[in-house]
Write a structure and sequence with these properties.
Layout: E1 9-18, E2 21-31, E3 36-41, H1 47-54, E4 62-67, E5 70-72, H2 77-82, E6 85-88, H3 100-104, E7 111-113, E8 116-117, H4 119-133, H5 148-161, E9 166-170, H6 178-193, E10 197-201, H7 205-211, E11 214-219, E12 222-228, H8 234-242, E13 260-269, E14 273-281, E15 285-290, H9 296-303, E16 311-316, E17 319-321, H10 326-331, E18 334-337, H11 341-345, H12 352-357, E19 365-366, E20 369-370, H13 372-386, H14 402-415, E21 420-424, H15 432-447, E22 451-455, H16 459-465, E23 468-473, E24 476-482, H17 488-495
């Protein structure tokens, strides 16, 4: 718990507005040395903006930032770093073709002479930072060859090499396996023991009780309340976040399974996928479970034509098809919500309207010119139907919350009238209230006759949403269950290859 009765960081009445939206409205927060302070809130609640203000990346409009009781005016990220504030974003700021040591001391390399790096000292200092974290990483390892969990440890070491007393961690476990999460929590425990104050942002509600000391909840840019985690409950935190009870997380649906929409026979990709057989029928949700690296996303990409296959047959509505590219898949009525929506599902520099219309542009064009009125009308319809929160059709999609970005991705496939849908991690990185909106949308699509393959690392999502469940292990289908016959123990056993 806290090693100091007074806050190392205090935020008083922080306010920030962007065109068309007030992101923060009078937010207070106190952070004690040696504690993990969780910041919770829906997408769009203001968490990221608040942390960007603390790290110097965004200038506040009003309010005060105090370090050790003294008001500071942060002039930028470098100033914040000099004051001992470090931040690790969900998307790492590492150079993959440099070593771990070079990344840790990037821009601050020890020199033998002007322009000549002291390599021995660099390796020694970087290795010391890694060893103090208790992680087995060689400072000479190329970052691009490290796992996501190891890259994250390099980010932590980089922050600590700047003598960070305050460390902000944004969704640190979003891409980690269970064992990697355990190792991260052990590292966080060691940092707490050294007196480092940690701000921890996560949508995984089960984690915060395991790692956090206190929690602050934001809603619509306002401070709802702060609680000690030992003195609150999951139900209370959800109420604080969404302003209502989420009585039933997974809405029930009577499955009306229809004819076959997609069939895969003997699909094979050398070294990745082995003899995959599956069937999707209209009106059903088939859950695809498995540990990271089991081949789930690779299977989705192969079906959609994003990755080539070395063997097997794909039947769409009963006819064998050669899906050589995503373009072919789209023409066959397929849609793919990718695991990484920002890099693969959206064009961040384009507007909400343009992103929703992307797969349909060819249908709306005459002589190579897009009929803007059709694009506008279609996008407006999806914004209304999916309740996408945006200041307008022309808003850059980069500035939407994660949940609303996910709705934009879904909207573009609904606009295209796709009826075979592959959802890869549809609720990754979105908050509990946004999930409560995505789940009914999936059910509505199934009720209208869409065939849905849903991949998720969240076992409750798989068990709560699926009519049938397939489990992958080492590139193979290792288990199949009905919704009634599936249990967490059975699914996990299959995912581990213990069937």
């Amino acid at each position: 718990m806290s090693t100091s009765p007074s806050p190392v960081l205090a935020l008083r009445g922080i306010r920030k507005a962007f065109p068309g939206v007030v992101a923060l409205d009078g937010v207070d927060l106190e952070l004690l040395a040696g504690e993990v302070h969780v910041v919770l809130g829906e997408n769009g609640a203001g968490k990221s903006t608040l942390m960007k203000i603390v790290s110097g990346a965004v200038e506040r409009d009003a309010g005060e930032v105090l370090l050790d009781g003294e008001v500071v005016n942060l002039s930028g990220p470098r100033h914040a770093q000099a004051l001992g504030i470090g931040i690790i974003y969900q998307e790492f700021n590492l150079v993959p073709h440099l070593t771990a040591g070079e990344n840790i001391l990037l821009g601050r390399e020890p020199l033998l002479a002007p322009g000549v790096i002291d390599q021995r000292r660099l390796w020694r200092e970087a290795q010391r930072q890694l060893d103090e974290l208790g992680v087995a990483i060689d400072a000479r390892s190329m970052v691009g060859g490290l796992s996501v969990a190891r890259q994250q440890m390099v980010e932590v070491a980089k922050a600590l090499s700047l003598r960070a007393r305050i460390l902000i961690m944004d969704e640190p476990t979003s891409a980690l396996t269970g064992q990697e999460i355990t190792e991260l929590f052990a590292t966080i425990g060691r940092l707490k023991a050294r007196g480092v104050a940690i701000v921890y942002i996560s949508h995984r509600m089960e984690e915060i009780f395991a790692i956090g000391d206190r929690v602050t909840v934001l809603r619509d840019g306002r401070h709802v309340g702060t609680r000690r985690l030992g003195e609150t409950s999951l139900a209370e935190l959800v109420r604080m976040m969404v302003g209502r009870d989420v009585a039933e997380q997974f809405p029930k649906r009577q499955a009306m399974v229809g004819v076959e929409a997609l069939r895969i026979e003997g699909l094979h990709r050398d070294g990745v996928l082995h003899d995959i057989n599956l069937t999707l029928r209209r009106g059903e949700v088939v859950g695809l479970a498995g540990l990271m690296g089991s081949g789930r996303s690779e299977l989705a990409r192969a079906i959609f034509g994003a990755d080539a296959i070395d063997g097997g047959r794909i039947f769409v509505r009963g006819e064998e098809r050669k899906i050589s590219s995503p373009r072919v898949a789209i023409e066959l009525g397929m849609g793919f919500l990718t695991e990484d929506r920002k890099r693969q599902g959206l064009v961040l520099v384009l507007s909400v309207r343009e992103n929703i219309g992307l797969p349909s542009v060819a249908r709306w064009s005459r002589a190579g010119i897009v009929q803007a009125w059709r694009e506008t009308a279609a996008a407006a319809k999806q914004i209304g139907h999916l309740r996408i929160k945006t200041p307008g059709l022309g808003q850059s999609v980069a500035y939407l919350s994660g949940g609303n970005q996910q709705k934009v991705v879904l909207g573009k496939w609904l606009c295209r009238e796709s009826d075979i849908l592959i959802f890869d991690e549809p609720t990754r990185g979105i908050a509990v209230g946004a999930k409560a909106e995505v789940y009914p949308l999936i059910n509505q699509l199934a009720a209208r006759g869409a065939a849905i393959l849903m991949i998720s690392s969240e076992l409750p999502d798989i068990l709560g949403m699926s009519d049938r469940i397939l489990v992958m292990h080492a590139g193979r289908i290792a288990g199949q269950f009905t919704a009634a016959g599936a249990t967490p123990e059975k699914v996990l056993a299959a995912a581990l290859g213990n069937n």
